[in-house]
């Protein structure tokens, strides 16, 4: 910048704009007549540097000493303008009125003041439009105001400000609605002529750059781009900047051309942006440096170049400390909430919302509501999110035509489409009407694209590609073809890719191949690696579908080749979120090819081994992604990890089938079955990590894989592959938790459980059998595991799945409220109910006992009195398998002590938790908190007397606060009272304490305990909500997560009196037996006294026996 800049007032506007803003701030003037003008320029310099709040403070102080009346008026208008810009007023509307009020105070016949007023008001309209406070149609009013401003500047011979105003008109003409490029070009030529005449080089360069940009875009969009001409044009502008020593202008030349090149897919734009960055550094133009790095980061992100993107983003973040942009409190709050929403911190957003409401923060009301709505949707609160979205739309509709309204309608359509496709289509059509007015071709392409997709899936499962759908796709394609910018090309490629995918769904393989090939060409030409990799994967899926339909084994290889190409691209760009799925598809190719080969052939075994290899690679990638994404805590962490596993179940299922059916490898099948079960549950219940050597970490496996891929000699490749197979086998039984420290998490397998069971048997002097179930509509299998077996035993169960499903729905998952006041008012009432329940038992047994085959193999696998651990799967959860009959006249529980576990891995965790029973341990018994369960009082009093030093809390003493106080301190905690399951939201399951205060599973989840046993003697305390991945949500999950070794809970609504009897009997045995044996003895006592299993069968022991 100008080194010879004098330490006096700059006499002309053009010199101000051509100067370094930092230098202007530091100018001092001794001349009284120049001081007031200098204040004006220094204020504007603070604004140009982004120091908006500082500029406002500056004006508040300096206005007091301004002597020139005209400058005082100018600064007063600027001050009000600036206060609106930093959102110092309660709302935009109030700020605009204040601006008018300030102007009204002054005489309005001064041309200089009128020029400033019209110009600033036009800019305020532009601000209102950009923030969504004003309709985009008010652009015409803004242009008219700028025209008035221009006329008054000309009248006062202030040609520099007049030309700057004309340039703002150009920028408005280039935007929709009613964009006018012809008028813009005409005005730009006028600006260039006038700027040359008055030697206003700053604006001359801006105007020439704008014309160069328009010419470049026109040529690029019509495919007539001549780079020699482009170079000549920009070099000529650069010469003007250097001739006038305008370093900022020269840097802008590199920035503008570099940005344009990147926007149209030319990589040499990066070199030009780097040149711009070097020049901006000298000028301390940190904002421009940051924007340059942002453009570079976006380029790398589009191409999946993760390392380069991370480097560029780091540069962006480092510059924040140099950029002195000051934000108002409202904008800072909006920024914080945006970051919070990005991080999934819903609690912060809800808290912020209360704070924001108190502030009556109208400036960010719409943005805040939008973020809040998105957060509701992301955490599954659909109804609340949709209601907020509709409120936002109503607010924007009062404003008029604005892109914010279009975007809100578009977002809402995507949320409601699965439940109400017609409504979603209506919302998109409304958005389209707005975008047509705004002339937003990119948005129109998006809208028609989404509209076509919505209509296609609306017809599921009978998908059709109607002429209407085709018409919408054609419109989306037309708008995407309106520009050759990378964003438009990316959109066009996505349209072709989606059309190919949809044609594949309806088995139109010719069209599927055609459109996927078109997408491949676009993504390849523009080096859009993630999209290219995804398209190659889609081609593989189409080929795989063709192979399945036409039974042509050769096309398995073609599909596998496509998946391999896709995998290599995903891997080279570290796109593991897609790589795992491609590895899974590679596995399917080899697995299904093996199914078409003779089972005794070498090729059969080779393909199965390759399939297993790819299955394991995919599983390890899923593990890595799960724990990389695991940046939340508590409930939010659980929901995130659970959701993460939803689309991974097919991977585990197919790998299970490959081992179970094809390889007959039941040990490996059990390991894959474990991966289908309670992965996020396992993550929380693990307290201790197992540390292994770094040579067994996933990082080392990846390094070995890279060496294998790079090696050319066959003998060395064979050796490397052998090492990799061993390492993969070792790693497969673990999930990588913390790579930096080398800590890993065990996924239980056959041998691990055998060793653990052996130690438990030695400690208890009893044999243990583990029965793990696998149950889907087409197959139900029981796996038997014992410490003295070399292999697991299997038993295929002949089961009518639909009949079992109906039985579960009719009987077990049907609440018949019984532990309530009515069932406890008198013994006579109980006896009447007992008779009713006995009838219920008899009618039900005819249904329930038809499923005795579920426990048939246990007759052979376990002897009488062996301890049996049952691990249900799928529909078998929450069923009292211990109440089935193992002999015609003998319930299963009569023959064997029984306990349950959600999975082998959870079993491992609970069995390894050490005992804490000692004299110092606290015992707490809570009874009848609601005063309406007399037998619950009897139960609690008996248990407290039976257990030494137990603290008894009855009625109002059994408070929620006391429960939470004693929960972490107690080795034994017994609750006798009301409980209630919540089938649709397991974390809202609750027990009822004094004053009818609910203690939910969600609240218990956050607690910590080392209790040996937690008993919830109430209704439905063991009923769970089950999500994909065999994930439990409810009291069972929460209590085990909190650290308890075991718990006793109920599977249905129980009876007050019989429940009391069961537990008094249980505690008689508990002091001398293990928990499983004590529960068995208590149930046998009830059976011997004639009670039906409704009265004793609801309770199950989960965890450590």
TrEMBL record:
It holds the Pfam family CHAT. Transmembrane segments: none annotated. Residues 854-1104 form the CHAT domain. Coiled coil: none annotated. Gene3D superfamilies: Tetratricopeptide repeat domain. This is CHAT domain-containing protein. It comes from Emticicia aquatilis. It comes from the Bacteria.
